[in-house]
TrEMBL record:
Belongs to the TonB-dependent receptor family. It comes from Komagataeibacter diospyri. Keywords: Cell outer membrane, Ion transport, Iron, Iron transport, Membrane, Receptor, Signal, TonB box, Transmembrane, Transmembrane beta strand, Transport. This is TonB-dependent receptor. It is found in: Cell outer membrane. Residues 27-54 are annotated as: Disordered. Residues 1-23 form the signal peptide. The keyword Ubl conjugation does not apply. The lineage of its organism: Bacteria, Pseudomonadati, Pseudomonadota, Alphaproteobacteria, Acetobacterales. The keyword Transport applies. It is a multi-pass membrane protein.
Length: 793
């Protein structure tokens, strides 16, 4: 959270979204075509015509989006190669946005800038979607995440294996306590059986450069396999002054333990620092354009802005107010993630796995605030640095057993996680004459004020059981349920921190989200070898947040507000139904799915009285404010119309509306029947691709319909259609310098459109009649990236 004035809006943000739940069932996933190597390339060297044709077919087959044939819910998968055809460092969330019903936005070209990352599926934002990597929970992907980390910090993009999205009911076993609206399951590639070294380098617009190296051990004497990889990425912001920087390392080891057991170990280290882009308003865009940004390179101007605000004097020329341009703001994150997993196949009928994992995170969100001056004794600047500081320590266990008997596959499992999370708001001094430290400087010492400091513990218990019953060769039925209990405890710390007093007014206490029966039922009927229909139903619950700034956290209230509302709070619930049809043959995959969703007990932070009568300073209260109803269709069509050519088209229509009027501040607003914020009704993707095994390329268009950022729908953002181009060349030669070499060029926003990317970066408002709410992020202009890769041995 960055600005005091928008804290309430941020608190309301995800609670006035709605969310439904589903994840791809492991038992129902279709296998992705086997990779030719870790980059999906055709083998190097001269080959016969038949062998060359086989390698081309394998490469192209891996690129196909797999549309979940045989599954009892809507699901699609993107292959490893499909995730590598974009510019290195691109968030896989951005690549997945070509799937139907998925809206992803970011103000940077790679989709990795976390403050502006926004993914919405059927109207549900990321705080109500489930995310896992190799089955490990990644949490809610909120900017100030209290229970996980983004996929870009958990796994290097070069090590991404197939990724699967389920827009429908969701698997009962997915490790997520907030998956009202679906799940995205990411995987890491395995070490190769042969020794090899992969290196890559990328250069691009605005000083972008990225280096990557991976060493595969091949099969070791004991049968194990290992890879270790490292990358460093640096880029300037495309406007203003600042950097986007990350270094990351991955390691994965696989060791067979006899014929029936396999051990997998995985480790990840990530350090990310990114300067922020300024949040814009419609009014700013209309009067000043899209390039308004922070004034990080002009400390003198930043001090003038702060002084003008604090003294009531006129602002400098071209500056409208103290929030138009901050001096500096940034997000800093450092993560360590690891897991150990045993897969065992005890008999022909009994198999399972057991996983233990751990994750630590240290983070800061910083900005140079004009609202609080540095004390004269500590430097006297009219500015100070305000931080929101994060510290996560979590560990967990996931286990599952599956038993096949007759025509049934019975599977059950358990997930437990213990998460300790600390959060604090502090202020650090600045010198009157200059800004000390880099633009992404960590502030860890000498705060002059600690506004609040909180400690939280969350224990999650989830049990599930399900049966897949092959009733006839054509008819398959899935049915099961999960039980979910999440115990939250919050404690506000008082006393002193580094000599500064801490006087908290936020709540302490405990609250439990629990539901013992969250069922789901699905069926798939194969009409013939090419045609099938499916249907499913699911009921899901989302646990309360557990932080001082969480949108659905009871501990973001004062002690008095918490005491007044605790007994009446209910966790958010969703009920989702869908029915669909799929067609698939050697050249065509097609699907159409219709869905209906009811979301109940949505949470919002409201004021009990109007601002004009709030003389006693009543605190905002987290409360259940009604529901949302959604209905829509998802369609996708993938056609390989010639040996080297394919066409992919997807379209989604989503009508998500609020069921109730909203009363806040003693005023009732007509929100019933209004569109849900942030989600366009129409989404479309078109991509045409060519790949002959040597030359490959694709050009795609993504269309997003208009979006609103106010609950009364009095402001709308225009639609946008953005084109992207990816082309590459794979060298096939006996020459050592060219063998294993490939090159690619990626162009984002090909036609250099100016548009609004993220809507709601600082939250949403009931209304914004003047268009002055700064909650928009401008989309990046056209940018070009060039990459060379080389595989040795």
């Amino acid at each position: 959270m960055k600005k005091n004035k928008i804290l309430l809006l941020t608190t309301c943000m995800s609670s006035l979204f709605f969310h439904n739940a589903h994840a791809a069932s492991t038992a129902q996933k279709q296998p992705v075509t086997k990779q030719t190597d870790q980059r999906g390339k055709a083998p190097a060297g001269k080959a016969t015509a038949n062998a060359r044709a086989d390698s081309v077919t394998a490469t192209k087959a891996e690129s196909i989006i797999v549309m979940g044939a045989g599954a009892a819910r809507e699901t699609q998968s993107l292959s490893h190669l499909a995730l590598q055809e974009v510019a290195p460092g691109t968030s896989p969330l951005k690549t997945l946005s070509k799937l139907p019903g998925v809206m992803f936005t970011s103000s940077d070209p790679l989709g990795s800038y976390e403050w502006s990352q926004q993914i919405i599926i059927r109207g549900f934002d990321q705080s109500r979607l489930g995310f896992t990597m190799d089955g490990i929970p990644l949490g809610n992907l909120a900017y100030g995440n209290d229970n996980g980390l983004s996929i870009g910090r958990a796994l290097q993009t070069e090590n991404n294996g197939p990724a699967t999205l389920a827009q429908g009911a969701g698997a009962v076993g997915v490790a997520a306590s907030n998956d009202l609206g679906g799940a995205l399951e990411f995987t890491s590639i395995d070490p190769s059986k042969k020794f090899g070294v992969d290196v890559a380098g990328t250069v691009g617009s605005y000083g972008t450069w990225r280096t990557f190296a991976r060493i595969n051990s091949g099969t070791l004497p004991g049968g194990g396999r290992l890879y270790v990889s490292y990358d460093y990425q640096d880029a300037n912001k495309w406007k203003g002054d600042g950097i986007q920087q990350q270094q990351q390392a991955n390691a994965k080891f696989i060791q067979p333990l006899g014929d029936k057991v396999k051990l997998t170990l995985f480790g990840d280290y990530s350090q990310r620092a990114e300067n922020d882009y300024q949040d814009l308003s419609l009014q700013m865009i209309q009067t000043k354009g899209y390039n308004v940004d922070n004034v990080t390179n002009n400390y003198g101007l930043a001090k003038q802005i702060a002084t003008a605000y604090q003294t009531g004097k006129p602002f400098p020329a071209g500056i409208a107010n103290q929030d138009q341009s901050y001096y500096n703001s940034a997000g800093l994150r450092q993560d360590v993630l690891g897991y150990g997993k045993f897969d065992f196949h005890l008999t022909d009928h009994l198999k399972g796995f057991a996983t233990v994992y751990g994750h630590t995170n240290t983070g800061e969100g910083i900005y140079a605030t004009p609202y609080t001056a540095t004390p004269a004794s500590l430097g006297g600047s009219p500015l100070s640095v305000r931080t929101t500081e994060y510290d996560i320590h979590r560990e967990g266990f996931i286990g599952s057993l599956s038993y096949e008997i007759a025509h049934h596959t019975i599977e059950g499992g358990f997930w437990f996680e213990n998460n300790d999370f600390e959060q604090a708001r502090r202020f650090y001094p600045l010198s009157a004459d200059k800004y000390t430290g880099s633009s992404v400087h960590w502030f860890r010492n000498n705060p002059f004020e600690t506004q609040w400091q909180s400690a939280f513990n969350t224990k999650t218990y989830q049990f599930h059981i399900q049966d897949t019953w092959q009733i006839t060769p054509a008819l398959k039925l899935n049915y099961g349920f999960k039980s979910l209990v999440v115990d939250n405890r919050g404690r506000q710390l008082e006393g002193n921190y580094m000599g500064t007093p801490v006087a908290n007014t936020y709540a302490s206490g405990s609250i439990t989200s629990a539901n013992g029966f969250l069922p789901q039922l699905g069926a798939n009927y194969r009409i013939n070898r090419h045609n099938e229909i499916f249907a499913d139903f699911a009921r899901n619950m989302a646990a309360f947040d557990n932080s001082t700034t969480g949108a659905t956290s009871p501990f973001a209230m004062t002690s008095a507000a918490y005491a007044a509302s605790k007994k009446t709070l209910h966790p958010e619930m969703s009920y989702s139904e869908e029915i669909g049809y799929r067609f698939h043959n050697r050249r065509i995959q097609a699907s159409i799915t219709g869905y209906y969703i009811e979301f109940e007990d949505r949470l919002a932070s409201i004021s009990p009285v109007s601002s004009g009568t709030n003389v006693q300073g009543y605190a905002s209260i987290l409360t259940n404010v009604g529901g949302v109803t959604a209905r829509g269709i998802d369609t996708a069509f993938n056609y390989r119309f010639a040996d080297n050519w394919s066409l992919y088209v997807s379209y989604a229509y989503n009508q998500s509306v609020y069921d109730d009027n909203l009363t806040t501040g003693g005023v009732t607003y007509a929100t019933r029947g209004k569109s849900v914020v942030g989600m366009p009704r129409n989404l479309a993707n078109v991509q045409i691709s060519y790949d002959d095994g040597t030359i490959w390329g694709n050009i795609g268009m993504q269309y997003q319909g208009r979006r609103t950022y106010t609950y009364t729908n009095d402001q709308w953002i225009k639609p946008n259609d953005i084109f992207n181009l990816n082309v590459g060349y794979r060298f096939h030669s006996h020459n050592w310098a060219l063998r294993g070499l490939d090159a690619q060029i990626n162009v984002t926003n090909l036609f250099d459109k100016r548009y609004v990317a993220t809507v709601g970066s600082t939250g949403f408002a009931v209304s914004d009649p003047t268009g002055s709410l700064q909650t928009l992020q401008a989309g990046a202009p056209r940018m070009v990236f060039f990459t060379l890769r080389k595989h040795f041995f």
